Amino acid sequence: MDKKAIKILLNTIKISQDESLRDWFYWEAYMQYITQEDFEYAKSHSVMYDQENIGHDEICRRIKIAVDKIEKQDVVNAFLYSLSTRQLEYRSFLSSYCIAKSLPEHSFTASPEPNEGICAVCGIHTYEFEEPIEFNTINYFKYKDGPCFDNLIQILFDVEQFPKLPAVTPNENDYRILNELKKIIEAAEPNDRISQLKKKISKTIKSNDGERVGLLEILGVIGILHDDEHLGYANQYVTYLERKHRPIRNDDVGYPARWWQGKFGIDHEKWKYGFGKNEQKE
Ligand SMILES: [Zn+2]
């Protein structure tokens, strides 16, 4: 992607964070800190976007159309490529693809009271699509943190964005990191959770704490890290009501990685489904 366009995005949002503090992520806030010329430049390189009015059903429809044009091996390659290069914008496509693929096309279905504003199937809230939707903060987080997404608006962004990025191919270093990650997960202590695992993988992959959690959450979504009851999205879409939290106060790890413990190890079937083709290249 164009380096100048990326710099415009990152700078704009960073200034907004510094200047607007609590409101920095609103369109009206960050757009104060960018010139029309720079915005047009970043848009022409598919790094920034105008706001769009998209309703719930249209979000679903567009996700299904976009994901059908993506080959699984291409998003696997993107994920692997992000490991050694630390080009974090490539990382979340794999889990977003998995969620998008399993998503049933559906109409807004109100959750039981008092959460009737939240769709019981996908979990998006009416306030998220009643106003025009902005995608620039989503892209900002992709470049900065490589997070794992499960919100449908983020998924929509990822599956529509993926074909706009140059296709990439992983190299020996990526495969080495992948295999080391596998060994570390398999050797985890029975009671280890993500907070222990993220420390154990820190020497294997150049990363900060948040990036490591995102990486492990992605492995959860694609079906590799889970417990016996809370599974990822590989076989079946997990509805909003099924994405259970653990009964603890600071349950800030995404579903289903939050349920994983060392004793559950690796889901070998899903590992093979995701990375089987790549392992053979060792
Ligand atoms: Zn929904």
Plain-language structure description:
- By secondary structure, the chain is mainly α.
- About 50% of the residues lie in helices and about 0% in strands.
- The protein contains 13 helices and no strands.
- The protein has helices at about 5-20, 25-30, 35-45, 55-65, 70-85, 95-100, 125-130, 135-145, 150-160, 170-185, 195-200, 210-220, 270-280.
- Helix 1 packs across helix 3 and helix 5 (about 70-85) crosses helix 10.
- The radius of gyration is 19 Å and the shape is globular.
- The model has no long low-confidence stretch (mean pLDDT about 95).
- Bound molecules: zinc ion (ZN).
- The site of zinc ion has 7 residues, from loops.
- Zinc ion binds near residues 121 and 122.
Task: Give the tags.
about 0% strand, binds zinc ion
Task: Determine the N-to-C terminus distance.
Answer: 29 Å
Secondary-structure element order, as H and E? HHHHHHHHHHHHH
Overall pLDDT confidence: 95
Q: Mind telling me the C-alpha Rg?
A: 19 Å
- Distinct small-molecule ligands in the complex: zinc ion
Count of discrete alpha- or pi-helical segments spanning 4 or more residues? 13
Helix content: 40-55%
Percent strand: under 5%
The helix/strand class is mainly alpha
Number of strands: 0
Regions with little confidence, pLDDT below 50 for 5+ residues:
none
Largest sheet: none
User: What general form does the structure show?
Assistant: globular
